[in-house]
């Protein structure tokens, strides 16, 4: 199992892959080199045989008698001179057998009796002239009892008696065989050594490259085992993909730590907020059970309603945290503002035209209700709701003439269970979830929710949501750019 796990690692696969690729490349290169070397040596042997054949043919053309040709040593270059009938006229000294030339006889003056026909007598050289090379081939020859492979060349020549003969001359392929064999042996010995070097270097390089990944894995395993989300994985200073992976991992751990901490605070605050109305309601019911005439029914109903609202807020936050996406239905913010403002004293709506966005009507209505409820608790006399289009955004603004929000607290008020007026009673101030819910819904709809200073000195909350493509004004369409 350990061996299988080691082989399945990235390091082992990279080493194996690099070794296989290099092996294939070396084998292909080696075959090409051997073929090229063999072809080059064959060409040299042909050139050598051509030279010997022409030299002998020149002597014949000059009128040298066949017995007096002074042919080269057969071991170096076996020579065979035959006429058109296949009769051997001269052979190198020591030549006892030959193949590949078409005339196996090596005894001058004898003919194998097969005869050889000339294709075209008109193409024969003139008397005393050497013709062109007409053939190259490969065969064997036995000289002084030793056989070897040879490349043969054939030259036509016409002697002084106007008799055309063929001169066969060979060049040994022993040097070719030895050179190719030596090169092949060197490759067979060097290939495993080179593959070992490539494999070793790849193994060390991948080990060095993957060491930060192993450090990240080890630290992540330790974090999982200890459940300590404050720890971070080491970030190498290489600036490569591994460094970016470590950085992203740490960013993920930071977000996870923040989410877990936020969830813990949420559970603790929710438990605390729920405990108060439940305890109050239980106390009133116990008193009413013991003393029916002392039962505070309005107070019990108020606590029940507050508990119901708190439970609804907690459920909505839970759905938002779970990633619930708003629907894509069209929503007219102007009509929604007038609907939510109806029945609220001191609230006026200024909307010159319909402003339509896409999203969840229920969630956006909840945002407006929370903003109006917050403004109503702090306004002295008047709350103004304005709906307009601004570029590619729909803007819904809620302004009041109250004391406003201090600049230092303008972000903190959007945190969950945060109430700036701590002296205020829970019944008046709520649980501190309204603005947190409003911002979460705005973000889920691709928008923003901010707070600033209203013209009357109070708080100004601005909800900005993206307009649908067809409802944007003042911006060029992508196809017009």
Summarize the structure.
Helices cover 47% and strands 19% of the residues. With 481 residues, it is α+β, with helices and mostly antiparallel strands.
Describe this structure as you would to a colleague:
- This protein is an alpha+beta fold and 481 residues long.
- It folds into three domains: 1-228, no CATH class; 241-308, Helix Hairpins (Orthogonal Bundle); 326-479, Histidine kinase-like ATPase, C-terminal domain (Heat Shock Protein 90).
- The protein is 47% helix and 19% strand.
- The chain is built from nine helices and 13 strands.
- Helix 2 (10-61) runs antiparallel to helix 3 (174-226) and helix 4 packs antiparallel against helix 5.
- The model is unreliable at 1-7, 111-120, 422-429 and 472-481 (pLDDT under 50).
């Amino acid at each position: 199992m350990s061996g299988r796990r080691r082989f399945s690692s990235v390091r082992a696969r990279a080493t194996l892959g690099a070794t296989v690729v290099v092996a294939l490349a070396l084998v292909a290169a080696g075959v090409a080199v051997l073929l090229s070397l063999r072809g080059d040596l064959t060409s040299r042997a042909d050139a050598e045989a051509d030279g010997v054949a022409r030299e002998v043919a020149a002597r014949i053309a000059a009128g040298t008698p066949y017995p007096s040709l002074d042919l080269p040593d057969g071991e170096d270059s076996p020579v065979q001179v035959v006429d058109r009938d296949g009769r051997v006229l001269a052979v190198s000294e020591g030549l006892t057998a030959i193949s590949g030339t078409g005339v196996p006889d090596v005894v001058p003056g004898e003919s194998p009796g097969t005869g050889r026909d000339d294709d075209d007598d008109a193409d024969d050289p003139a008397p005393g002239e050497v013709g062109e090379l007409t053939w190259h081939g490969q065969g064997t020859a036995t000289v002084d009892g030793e056989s070897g492979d040879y490349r043969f060349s054939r030259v036509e020549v016409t002697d002084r008696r106007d008799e055309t003969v063929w001169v066969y001359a060979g060049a040994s392929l022993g040097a070719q065989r030895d050179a190719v064999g030596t090169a092949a042996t060197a490759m067979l010995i060097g290939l495993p050594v080179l593959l070992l070097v490539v494999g070793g270097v790849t193994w060390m390089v991948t080990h060095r490259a993957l060491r930060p990944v192993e450090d990240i894995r080890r630290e992540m395993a330790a974090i999982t085992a200890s459940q300590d989300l404050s720890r971070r994985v080491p970030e190498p200073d290489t600036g490569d993909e591994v460094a970016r992976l470590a950085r992203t991992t740490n960013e993920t751990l930071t977000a996870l730590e923040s989410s877990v901490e936020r969830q813990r605070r949420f559970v603790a605050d929710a438990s605390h907020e729920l405990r108060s109305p439940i305890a109050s309601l239980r106390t009133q019911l116990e008193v009413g059970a013991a003393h029916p005439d002392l039962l505070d029914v309005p107070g019990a109903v108020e606590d029940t309603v507050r508990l119901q609202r708190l439970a609804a807020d907690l459920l909505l936050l839970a759905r938002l945290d779970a990633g619930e996406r708003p629907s894509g239905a069209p929503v007219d913010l102007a009509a929604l503002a007038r609907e939510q403002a109806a029945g609220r004293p001191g609230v006026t709506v200024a909307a010159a035209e319909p402003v339509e966005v896409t999203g969840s009507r229920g969630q956006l209505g909840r945002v407006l209700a929370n903003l109006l409820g917050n403004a109503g608790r702090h306004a002295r006399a008047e709350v103004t709701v304005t709906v307009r289009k601004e570029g590619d955004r729909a803007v819904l603004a809620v302004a009041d003439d109250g004391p406003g929000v201090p600049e230092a607290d303008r972000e903190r008020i959007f945190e969950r269970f945060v109430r700036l007026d701590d002296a205020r009673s829970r019944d008046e101030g709520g649980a501190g979830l309204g603005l947190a819910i409003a911002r979460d819904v705005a973000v889920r709809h691709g928008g923003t929710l901010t707070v600033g200073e209203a013209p009357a000195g109070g708080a100004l909350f601005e909800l900005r949501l993206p307009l649908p493509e067809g409802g944007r004004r003042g911006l060029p369409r992508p196809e017009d750019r």
